[in-house]
Specification:
Blueprint lengths: L2 H30 L3 E2 L1 H5 L9 E7 L5 E3 L2 E7 L4 E7 L11 E8 L5 E8 L8 H11 L4 H9 L6
Parallel strand pairs: 1-2, 5-7
Antiparallel strand pairs: 2-4, 2-6, 3-4, 4-5, 6-7
C-alpha cells in the first residue's frame, strides 16, 4: 500500500470515529435534557407526555395529603394547577404556599408523577423559570392575590 493510500485511510477512519463520538455525545445530551413548564403550559398540553420534564410554581394551600412516604399536592402558578404525586422524603423546606420544582412525567390521568422534588432555598429565592411563570400568571389577577403572593415571599415587583 502506498503512503498516500495509508494516509487517506487513516483520515477516513479518524473522521468516521469522530462522527460516531459526536453522535453519541449529542444523543446523551438529548436524553438528559429536561425542560421546565409552568402549570398553565401543562394544562394547555404544551408539556411532553412521553418524556421527563420539570414543573414549578407554588404548593397550593390546603392541597398537601400524606400517606406514609407517598405525598400528593398541587402546584399552581395562580392561574392553573397540576396535581403531583411523589413517593420519598421531601426536602425540609417543602411546605404549602412556598415555591417548588418537581421533575418527573405526566401520566395519562393528568397526574404528574415526580421523581424529584426541589424546594426553594430561602424566602427570597425562587428558580428563574418559576418566577417568570408566576409573574406572567399574575398579570390580570386580582390585586389581593398579588399581595398574598408578595407576603409569602413570592415574586416581587
Amino acid at each position: 500500500m502506498k503512503p498516500r493510500s495509508k494516509r487517506a485511510l487513516a483520515i477516513a477512519g479518524g473522521l468516521a470515529t469522530l462522527a460516531v463520538v459526536t453522535a453519541l455525545v449529542l444523543n446523551a445530551f438529548r436524553s438528559n435534557l429536561v425542560f421546565f413548564y409552568s402549570p398553565t403550559q401543562v394544562a394547555a398540553d404544551e408539556a411532553p407526555r412521553d418524556r421527563a420534564f420539570r414543573v414549578g410554581g407554588l404548593v397550593e394551600q390546603g392541597s398537601l395529603k400524606r400517606d406514609g412516604l407517598t405525598v400528593q399536592f398541587r402546584i399552581t402558578d395562580t392561574a392553573q394547577t397540576v396535581p403531583v404525586s411523589y413517593t420519598g422524603m421531601l426536602p425540609d423546606l417543602f411546605q404549602e404556599g412556598k415555591g417548588v420544582v418537581a421533575q418527573g412525567r405526566l401520566g395519562t390521568d393528568g397526574m404528574f408523577r415526580a421523581d424529584q422534588v426541589l424546594a426553594k432555598h430561602d424566602e427570597n429565592y425562587m428558580p428563574p423559570e418559576a418566577a417568570d411563570a408566576l409573574a406572567q400568571a399574575k398579570k390580570g389577577q386580582m390585586p389581593s392575590l398579588q399581595g398574598q403572593l408578595d407576603a409569602q415571599g413570592g415574586v416581587t415587583r
